[in-house]
Amino acid sequence: MDLNKLYSSQRTGVDQPEDNDDPRSGYQKDYDRIIFSSAFRRLQNKTQVFPLPGSVFVHNRLTHSLEVSSVGRSLGSLVGKYIYDIYANDLDSKSKPFYRNHLKNVLSSACLCHDIGNPAFGHSGEDAMVSFFKKNEKELKSRFSDKEYSDLTNFEGNANSIRVLTQQLNGKPKGGLRLTYSTLAAIAKYPCESTARNNDFTHRKKFGFLQSEKETFEKVALETGMIIDTSVSGLSYLRHPFVWLVEAADDICYYIIDLEDAQRLRIIETSHCEGLLDNLIRCLGVEDVSEFDKTLITISDKNERISYLRAKSINSLIFKAFEFYKLHFDNIVAGKHNKALFDMIAEDCNALQQIVDFSVEHIYNDRSVVEIENAGYNVMYELLNHFVYPILKEKKEKSDKKALILIPKQYRTESESNYDKVMGIVDYLSGMTDIYATELYRKIKGIEIGMRN
Fold first, then answer.
1. Where are the alpha helices (DSSP H) in 187-269?
2. Which of 53, 97, 160, 315 has its CA at 20 to 30 Å from residue 132's CA atom?
3. What keywords are assigned to this protein (predicted)?
4. Extended strands (E) in 270-405
5. CA 358/CA 337 separation, integer angstroms
6. Taking the mean position of all CA atoms in its chain, how far away is CA 10?
């Protein structure tokens, strides 16, 4: 890849790149547009890991995204300066200010919207959508092309993020949020269509764009220098170099913050949490241990001690991720790298792998987490069942028509395509918050009857 071709200020829904006279860069505008979007606001009532709401504040998808964005900005600053300093002779007059001043904004924006396509109840919501179309394959598959049905039976929040950010809903502007191609390329962890999925390859473990956004993604890939993966028959690209940093920021926050939340909820003992984070900081070897110990000994409040350890852990992981990114930079840019930065750190520092293993055993399988996953699965599955069959019927009964009245106009389509019709339903359901989805489920099931407030 050419470092001068990895970014583009071109936006979806706009024919020409925007005027550069605005004091805000196009990449800063991306951040602002995401922050003020309704899709982003809805993340405040979408489960991250632990049930919402509760008497103890825990992270939701919105607070998680804000924190990932902060980490992404830090990584962008480090990497941008590195490229500016080391590869100055390879950069043209536009690229030098981009890497020095704007890469951090691209990564911050990409991190901010990396979960924007996740449905209510997180991964259990995704599982419900996948299961619904797989279990009803005999009745439904013949109505779609193979690639269209593959999208539905492999529903993925990452691919849905591209759709949420770029699609034109009824009554809304063309191009969705009209983000730059740079930001969109940076969130494509799995830049392939659903039929090209292959768990043996990091960039194809899942998929990154639906058939409805295939043409848009091809434009993004072309304008940001993404390399086509010729080893597979379906459309697939190698990861964009910025993706590895967005993924690292997400992984860092996911494991470290969940540990802190679990301690506040008393799912794990404070001593266990403190020990794991303390070992991690010493293992990574980034912090000045003597100064670290001097500060830690002055903090007596247990929650504040965990907060301090969390902050130091994240800081250390940022610098370690940067270190590995530099070490493998040539392969990353050439599309030859195939391992997440977080995984490389875990291989190098056993204390990080201990946190991952501990979290899987004691946090992600805690009863409160499993209960919300089960509930969320059932809610989303039943909502799909309530709307998908009616939308596909050619001759609709009165009950079918009544069900579809509940679908907001912006998600309805006049298209004759069954795929477009069902994707409108998926858009509606995947955009729901946990609370809204639960309330609608209770009403259509007759569990709760009454007028809306």
1. 214-223, 243-264
2. 53
3. Hydrolase
4. none
5. 28
6. 22
What tokens appear for 171 in the block?
Answer: 């009554």
Bridge partners, 11 (sequence order) = 180
Q: Cα Rg for the chain, rounded, in angstroms? A: 23
Name the DSSP class of 406. Answer: T
pLDDT tens sequence for the chain (453 residues): 799 999 999 999 887 666 566 667 889 999 999 999 999 999 988 876 665 555 456 678 899 999 999 999 999 999 999 999 999 999 999 999 999 999 999 999 999 999 999 998 888 889 999 999 999 999 999 999 999 999 999 999 999 999 999 998 777 778 889 999 999 999 999 999 999 999 999 999 999 999 999 999 999 999 999 999 999 989 999 999 999 999 999 999 999 998 998 888 888 999 999 999 999 999 999 999 999 999 999 999 999 999 999 999 999 999 999 999 999 999 999 999 999 999 999 999 999 999 999 999 988 888 877 888 898 899 999 999 999 999 999 899 999 999 999 999 989 887 889 999 999 999 999 999 999 999 999 999 888 776 555
Question: What six digits make up the tokens of 43?
Answer: 């993340």
Round to whole Å and give the CA distance between 43 and 433.
7
By C-alpha distance, which of 278, 329, 284 is closest to 306?
278
Please state, as a whole number, how many other Cβ atoms lie within 10 Å of the Cβ of residue 271.
10
Whether the CB-CB separation of 122 and 165 falls below 8 Å is answered with no
Task: Count CB atoms within 10 A of the CB of residue 300.
Answer: 7
Dihedral sign, CA of 254, 339, 112, 120? negative
Beta-strand runs (E) in 331-380: none
pTM: 0.93
Instruction: Give the length of the chain.
Output: 453
Query: CB count, 10 Å around CB of 95?
Result: 21
Q: Are 282 and 289 in contact (CB under 8 A)?
A: yes
